[in-house]
Write a structure and sequence with these properties.
Layout: E1 4-9, H1 13-23, E2 29-31, H2 38-48, E3 52-55, E4 58-59, E5 62-63, H3 64-74, E6 79-84, H4 89-97, E7 102-105, H5 110-121, H6 129-141, H7 150-153, H8 158-168, H9 173-180, H10 184-198, H11 203-212
Parallel strand pairs: 1-2, 1-3, 3-6, 6-7
Antiparallel strand pairs: 4-5
Helix pairs in contact: 2-3, 4-6, 8-9, 8-10, 8-11, 9-10
Length: 221
């Protein structure tokens, strides 16, 4: 697997430097010089081409959500994970709506941050389990066209639909593999393929689309 280039964007210099030093010990992560503000973050994203950006919501006078939106506009392939002290569900929903694929508290371990970075690079993501249900509910409530998405789902193979149904059921990759009698690597491949076909950035977005199209936990095609 190719090393993952990671850009940390945080105006708390000591925190950013400590996190960068810890993540740099991971053999598969290449940690770029941290950025403390929007201007520096956008400049480094353009010149250093990170695959994953770890971004705080507050950057001094700058809004991390605005930086997120500008990053996604200029670099559609970049994967953004929010790492912040904030925990308001509304802010999480806004971040997901603007293209973030993960949300982590600064109190989480560096080991979890590294795992989420790897997941993000593979078109996965992370939302804290204790708020995931509420985030999903609000994303669904904000949908202007409930019941849409059937045409996109029609592009999936039967196996990809099975994997998506397992995701809607809340199963982990290991649990999906066990239910379907597949290897974890095969489940990952199916997940990556279905996300690409749906033009989704994260599993949460795919689950939201599936539920808008009528899929529900505990149901089978």
């Amino acid at each position: 697997m190719q090393p993952i280039r990671v850009l940390i964007v945080d105006d708390h210099a000591l925190f950013a430097e400590a996190l960068a030093a810890r993540l740099a010990r991971e053999p598969d992560l290449v940690i770029l010089p941290p950025a403390a503000d929007a201007r520096r973050a956008l400049a480094l994203a353009a010149t250093e081409r990170p695959q994953v950006v770890v971004l705080d919501v507050t950057l001094g006078s700058d809004s991390g959500l605005d930086v997120l939106e500008r990053l996604r506009e200029r670099h559609p392939d970049v994967r953004v994970v929010m790492l912040t002290a904030m925990s308001e569900v509304d802010t999480v929903v806004q971040a997901i709506g603007r293209g973030a694929v993960g949300w982590l508290s600064k109190t989480e371990s560096a080991d979890l941050v590294a795992r989420v970075i790897r997941s993000a690079a593979r078109r996965g993501g992370w939302i804290p389990p204790d708020i995931a249900g509420e985030v999903l509910r609000r994303l669904l409530a904000a949908d202007p066209e409930p019941g849409g998405g059937q045409q996109l789902l029609a592009e999936l193979t039967p196996r990809e639909r099975e994997v998506l149904q397992c995701m809607v059921d809340g199963l982990t990759r290991a649990e999906i593999a066990d239910r379907l009698g597949l290897s974890a690597n095969t489940v990952r491949t199916h997940t990556q393929n279905l996300l690409a076909k749906l033009d989704m950035h994260s599993a949460l977005e795919a689950i939201t689309l599936a539920m808008r199209a009528g899929m529900r936990p505990g149901t089978r095609d």
